[in-house]
Amino acid sequence: MNKKIKVLSAVLGFIMLTGCSSTSKYPSSNDQEKIAQLTQTGIHYYWHGGDLSKAEKEFFKGITLKGKYDVVENSFVEASALSPYRTDLRFGIASTQIIQKKTPEALQTYRDILVMYPDNFEAGILLAGYSKQMGDMKTFNETIEVLKKNHPEKTQEYLEKFSMADNFSKAKLNTEAFKVNGNHAIVILGYALGEGGVMKPTLVERLKKGYELHKKNPKSPIIVSGGVQKGGVTEAFLMRNWLVSKGVPSKLIYMDDLAKDTVGNAIYSTEILATLKPEKVTLISSASHIRRGLSVFQEAANLKGLNVEYSNLVYLDYPSLEEAQKVSEAEKLVIYRDLIRTSGIWAYPGIQQ
Question: Does residue 225 fall inside a structural domain?
Fold first, then answer.
């Protein structure tokens, strides 16, 4: 664990046990300015990366940074040290630890929040959910019992969300296009573009699956989702052009060019689905991504009040379908992470969902 995080955790434990109030809940205006600068630095590196040596020199003297997420984590660690009682900063630390697969450290960060604020639902449900996905049912059950006492209805809602995601994790993956009866729509998820705004093979393979499904369902509207720009174009723009070049009528294609990640795919595509009002939707992505996609799209639909039945069609990015059906611990964690983000619990509260 990062040395500064260990020290900060120990300090907070001492404060809570002794009642010491020497650490002010209200940072000075100078410290508030530093906190704002640190958090903005962290989020900038989250999205864009940057010069690690410059970050070491300007912000993190004495710390060797190995990648952009080290900058993000240390930005929130430094900010939290200036204002230890701000839970938003601590959630930022934990979310970055999850991204870096430092799950035990993230769970400790959630426990630290609960030491300060035992009734904090968000910290509790994140601790419970991630513990469950790591196979620690003891922590899951104990934490859920506490949450049920303090937040019975909300806890039950999240248990149902977890159950929904677990069911999608068991879903049979379809690699061949199929006919769908009834009011139907297709959603194709984007993939990061290469330098100069070029579609990578993964995105092209997803589009091929979408085109195959279109041929089976020629009247179904198609949403192409992806808003990260490279070379002045978005994924959705290039996806639309590719489909049109294959003969798909442009009037069938709807572009979501706002989404920056899977959660965004679900939120913005669901806004379009709300206008199309399909009864059935086929989600298309890579096999390694589809279970997460299905979980967040269903959650987004539920929040929007849409009654939608989801199916899947995948580009097989595993050696075999048998391998693709297996769900790793790492995948289980990101499924719950993005499910919880979609539900409204932000990874970086007030800054980034």
Answer: yes
